[in-house]
Specification:
mainly alpha, two-stranded antiparallel ribbon, 297 residues, single chain, three-stranded antiparallel sheet
């Protein structure tokens, strides 16, 4: 049975009823403030909900409004981002806040295409903000939604096909609740490994129910040192600079962050510093053969 032969109305009834009883109570679902919703979406990229729940209110205490965030220095935002990881997201959020304040006087654009023109905002984030803050009938597709849609369809779908199916299945009413329900189903029941089909509200209409096989996983080795990915070392460098707001020489940072670093590995460490500089996370002041590194001003 494919989703094309399943009544969308039946799907809506089953899933929305389940969501009413089992949906997660998340703080960003209790607001329609586009700034708070955008913050949650940026934080949730590549970060578990449990960690975001801890750090989301802390960040809001420091930057309670889009204007407050836009007026901050990049280094201050990076410091406030402590514990989240993937520090480039802090800069994207900061640049986005500045654009909204400078171009729109602090008012978020409602149109998803205009939202997508903002720094660091892609299709998913634009639709998520428009759907959650302005209740526009727009589909949102994250990893969880992609998995649910593909399994209900009963076959592998291309990225564009998933988006088309998600938009086609969107109910005229309760579109916001439907989007949240799909994400919760994928996060809690229709998980990647060993989905809990017996507890799924769609088990009677889903062609993949009780048929999902554990996917073969490939070990993808990231560039790094002694089994530790470069992104981890980048994060450690930023964390070190958070604690030394005035910065330090690159040689001192190397000794402190990677105590076992061998002289022949200094070019590798220098490339890490260059990558952070290129991303706008650090500032490097060079004087002859020495250089001083600090968080972006």
């Amino acid at each position: 049975m494919s989703v094309m032969r399943i009544s969308p109305r039946r799907l809506h009834l089953l899933l929305l009823r389940w969501y009413g009883s089992h949906g997660r109570d998340l703080p960003w679902r209790r607001t329609r403030d586009p700034y708070r919703i955008l913050l949650s979406e940026i934080m949730l990229q590549q970060t578990q909900v449990s960690r975001v729940l801890m750090l989301y209110p802390k960040f809001l205490r420091t930057y309670p409004s889009i204007r407050k965030l836009a007026s901050a220095k990049p280094s201050e935002v990076i410091i406030a981002w402590r514990g989240m990881g993937y520090n480039r997201r802090a800069l994207y959020l900061h640049r986005c806040a500045q654009a909204i304040v400078e171009e729109g006087g602090g008012r978020f654009p409602r149109d998803p295409e205009r939202l997508r023109s903002l720094p660091g905002i892609g299709r998913y984030t634009a639709n998520a903000v428009a759907s959650s803050a302005f209740r526009l009938p727009l589909a949102i597709v994250d990893t969880n939604v992609r998995r649910v849609i593909s399994r209900v369809q009963g076959r592998h779908l291309t990225e564009e096909a998933v988006w088309k199916n998600a938009q086609r299945l969107l109910p005229v009413r309760h579109a916001y609740e439907w989007n949240q329900a799909l994400m919760d189903l994928g996060a809690m029941i229709c998980i990647a490994h060993d989905p809990r089909c017996a507890e799924c509200p769609l088990r009677t209409v889903c062609p993949s129910a009780h048929r999902v096989k554990r996917p073969l996983t490939r070990v993808v080795r990231e560039p790094g040192r002694e089994g530790v990915p470069n992104r981890i070392f980048r994060g450690r460098i930023v964390e070190y600079l958070r604690q030394r707001k005035r910065g330090a020489s690159s040689s001192l940072i190397a000794r402190e962050v990677v105590p076992s670093l061998r002289p022949g590995e200094m070019p590798w460490f220098a490339r890490l510093i260059r990558s952070l500089e290129a991303d706008g996370l650090v500032r490097v002041v060079r004087c002859g053969r020495s250089e001083r590194v600090s968080l972006a001003a």
